[in-house]
């Protein structure tokens, strides 16, 4: 209940900040020659700019802000609200052009005044930012290159938009209006300072070292880290962190990975990472002693925050990572509650932690169901499930009288998670009992 009230509070703060610039239009008085279309256009522009400034707050990793929602939910909201910001900002000049076609001359970057140049550059930049995020894979843009481009463009867009508003000067003539705009500008500078200076400095003083790199099934590697000169941190099973290995914490590129170790394994942190290209393909070559930095823990995808009479863990591929942390923690705590692991993979050799899962089943009240797209041929005949997780499969393996009471945790590829969520609803699982972890942002 406390988290729910905190969530409502932060949603109220977000809405208030988005609506505050509208007071500039609604209360400030209309400039000469402006009609309601102009006012509406300016209001959309101000609202879009406020949303853009708040985008920096959504990804600043404030744990108290993210706690009621989960960091992955904030990241998804960050992406979706970006579309709204783009729509508001594009609608701002379009309405002005419709009202007065002569203003189309402002699109000529060479002859336009500086205020129009700033607006045009900001709008084009926002289009590029959204486009490269939506079509990153089609453009074959690496995650590292995208993250650098995304960060630089975001700062430039907001700075140009603020400059545009200041150069136009309409609705900013009164002291309180200028004060409001100065607050937005200061908020942007403050957020950038927190993300790019304060947090990296904190992490710089708390380094980690690579102890070993362990090969796993399914083209995955487990990165074992030890704190260097500090006790590390406690985390809850299923949580994650942003990791920088072999580079400065001030580097622009960071990677989010779930912790795979038990939450009871103090002073040791493991992350199991599938080699998919870019940074992940370099994990195998890391040498013991390499310095690393971890920004964490983050996330609410954890059995510690969603108590229940038992847990159903549904994994796809390397999505097993946060779930194996939950199982390892349950074993270390000698948790007597029942658990079910339904684990989908392409084939038998791709089952990460295959042998350990069998060992955990002997230590816990754990039922393991393997689901393979391509089961092994020959004898003995495959005894597990074939195909994909659906409602019929869930009905075969879950206790019907407890389906609505258990807690469900899903992690895996996006399409798999969508299908499993629909299947759970189909068998009668309440929405509030379904917990997911998604990081495929771009």
Kindly describe this structure.
The chain is of the alpha/beta class. It has 3 domains: 202 residues; 90 residues, Elongation Factor Tu (Ef-tu), domain 3 (Beta Barrel); 127 residues, Rossmann fold. Helix content is 45%, strand content 16%. The strands form 2 sheets. A 6-stranded antiparallel sheet has the order 4-3-6-1-2-5. Strand 11, helix 12 and strand 12 form a beta-alpha-beta unit. Helix 3 packs antiparallel against helix 5. The radius of gyration is 25 Å and the shape is elongated. It starts with a helix and ends in a 5-residue tail after the last strand.
Helix segment tally: 12
The major pleated sheet works out as:
6 strands, antiparallel
The largest beta-sheet arranges its strands as 4-3-6-1-2-5
What separation lies between the terminal Cα atoms?
Answer: 33 Å
Instruction: Enumerate the spans where pLDDT stays under 50 for 5 or more consecutive residues.
Output: none
Assign an overall shape.
elongated
Overall mean pLDDT stands at 89
Which percent range fits the helix content?
40-55%
By helix and strand content, what is the structural category? Answer: alpha/beta
H and E order? HHHHHHHHEEEEEEEHEHEEHEHE
Using only C-alpha atoms, the radius of gyration works out to 25 Å
Total number of distinct structural domains: 3
Query: Which percent range describes the beta-strand content?
Result: 15-25%
Counting DSSP E segments of at least 2 residues, the number of strands comes to 12
Could you provide a short overview of the structure?
It is built from 12 helices and 12 strands. It is an alpha/beta fold and 442 residues long.
């Amino acid at each position: 209940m406390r988290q729910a009230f905190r969530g409502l509070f932060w949603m109220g703060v977000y809405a208030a900040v988005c609506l505050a610039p509208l007071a500039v239009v609604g209360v400030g008085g209309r400039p000469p020659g402006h009609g309601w279309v102009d006012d509406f256009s300016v209001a959309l522009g101000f609202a879009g700019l406020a949303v853009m400034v708040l985008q920096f707050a959504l990804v600043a990793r404030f744990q108290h802000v993210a706690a009621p929602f989960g960091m992955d939910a904030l990241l998804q909201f960050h992406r979706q609200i970006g579309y709204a910001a783009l729509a508001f900002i594009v609608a701002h000049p379009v309405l002005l052009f419709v009202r007065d076609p002569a203003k189309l001359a402002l699109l000529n970057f060479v002859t336009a005044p500086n205020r129009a140049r700033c607006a045009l550059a900001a709008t084009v930049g926002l289009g590029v930012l959204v486009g490269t995020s939506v079509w990153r894979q089609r453009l074959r843009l690496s995650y590292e290159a995208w993250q650098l481009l995304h960060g630089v463009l975001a700062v430039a867009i907001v700075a140009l938009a603020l400059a545009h508003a200041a150069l136009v000067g309409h609705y900013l003539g009164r002291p309180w209006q200028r004060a409001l705009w100065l607050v937005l500008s200061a908020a942007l500078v403050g957020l950038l300072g927190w993300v790019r200076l304060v947090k990296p400095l904190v992490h710089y003083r708390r380094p980690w070292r690579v102890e070993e790199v362990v090969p796993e099934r399914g083209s995955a590697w487990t990165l074992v880290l030890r704190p260097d000169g500090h006790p590390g941190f406690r985390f809850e099973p299923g949580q994650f962190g942003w990791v920088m290995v072999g580079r400065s914490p001030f580097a622009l590129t960071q990677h989010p990975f779930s912790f795979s170790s038990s939450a009871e394994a103090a002073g040791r942190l493991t992350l199991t990472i599938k080699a998919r290209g870019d940074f992940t393909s370099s994990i195998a070559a890391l040498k013991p002693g390499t310095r690393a930095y971890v920004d964490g823990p983050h996330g609410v995808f954890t059995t510690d925050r969603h108590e229940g009479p038992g847990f159903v863990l549904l994994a796809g591929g390397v999505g097993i990572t946060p779930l194996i942390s939950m199982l390892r923690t349950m074993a270390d705590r000698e948790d007597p509650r029942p658990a079910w692991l339904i684990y989908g993979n392409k084939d038998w050799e791709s089952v990460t932690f295959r042998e350990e899962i069998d060992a955990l089943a002997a230590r816990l009240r754990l039922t393991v169901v393997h689901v393979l797209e391509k089961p092994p041929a020959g004898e003995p005949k495959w005894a597990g499930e074939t195909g994909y997780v659906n409602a019929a499969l869930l009905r075969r393996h879950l206790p019907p009288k407890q389906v609505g009471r258990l807690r469900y945790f899903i992690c895996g590829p996006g399409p798999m998670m969508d299908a499993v969520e629909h299947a759970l609803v189909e068998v009668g699982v309440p929405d509030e009992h379904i917990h997911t972890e998604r990081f495929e942002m771009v």
